[in-house]
Amino acid sequence: MSSHAPIESSWRPFDMNEYRPGRSLTSAERTMLASSGSRSAMLRMKPAPDLIRPLTDIASGSGSGSKVTALIIARLLREMHAAGLPCWCWPQERWLTLCREVREGRPLMAAFTWHLAGFHDPLSLPDIRKPALYASAIFGQDFYHQELDRLTDTLTSLGYAPASQKNHVSGILATLMIMNRDPRLETFTPELLWRAGIPLRRPRFTRTCRAGHFQRSDENAKLHMMV
Length: 227
Description:
By secondary structure, this protein is mainly alpha-helical.
């Protein structure tokens, strides 16, 4: 029996169209971006202005701290002022330059680049040491840990020692989520595992995932392995 309370899946892809994004800056937005003081004031506004609301919404579930979030969004506001365009109108290469330049808060910058510029290969960025931080930032920290709990509970139920399961599979799970562009365990396929090279390196993980598929009951939201 799992020690984790069942959580109903609530993940859905980020949809920029819900924000009705403009293709240019308004005169009021240009004024707010014109100085460091007015840009700092934007970060404190409640509710967040339309220009940064997509950013704050992505950041809110990413697991990034408030200080890092403020630093990254402040950097983007400076860039918007310099470019004269909303960040969702930038070419992908501008985003990739920022990802390479940023040290603190790179997972969050990669999440913005994923959702706003369509760059879905953050693992190709330099110095990626903890894929779990990137999967958490992109898909939401709570959902990432929910799926990690489901997977480790299943491994434990099949007889594997629980003590170190999360350490063994957390990075693998994050990598698969990113490669799949969908974090839900139900969407993982044997082809995905082979593409990730997991059968050669992690037979335990492979046997668990290839035994069947994960299915959530509508009534009790418990994890079942369908063999």
